[in-house]
Amino acid sequence: MRQAGARKDEIHQHSGWVIPLGFLAAILLLSGLFLGWYLRPGPKPSGEAFTGQSGAVDLHVRGVPFKVPANYLDGAAARNGGDVNSLALAALFPSMRGYTETDAALFHGNAPDTPVVRISLRADSVSLDGRARLARIYRPYIQGAGTAGPFGLTRYEFARNSGYERSELFAGESGGDLLLFLCERPSPNLPSPNCIAIDRPLAEGLSYTYRFKRAWLARWREMSGGVSGLIERLRAPD
What we know:
Number of helices: 4
Strand order of the largest sheet: 4-5-11-10-9-8-7-6
Number of strands: 11
Largest sheet: 8 strands, antiparallel
Radius of gyration: 26 Å
């Protein structure tokens, strides 16, 4: 009887391990299948940020109509169209073409010279032009006067503890407008710095910004023209 009881206890002890091990094996198997499916070559699910499809999507941003090829839209939700408060676009400089599977590595990369321009259209109740924005928003945080910078730009230094001390501000005249570029300082901890072209009015209550790698700052005039030209092409008649 003691031997039979021992065998029964042994069976119960072994069976206690079988269920957790089986459960763990099932989780690992399902995880492997999911990862393999997600990383497979070829077209990705529609939830991806970019698509190679170029069908036009009708959108209204703060009431302003746009007709945007889907491969310019940064985010799956925007591909549903309709009324939105903000819109994110992406294009390759200098051609200003949208996403393709061939260019996928560029759109997802973060190299210092990655040629992707990321454009953001959004509501702006202030709607200041460059000169007014420099005077009212940034001047209180600027240290000293502007100095001659590279590429025909004026360079401004921010005061320490201003919140902007890790960046530099550049200003350039273009067609009577003053364009402002807030650029991250390169450092060992930031080997791939960005520049942001600060809000530019587009329509009543609507402005746009665009972000690009600092390595392309030398071509700021061409960049500005390419972005504004793209937005005008995507804007639908009222």
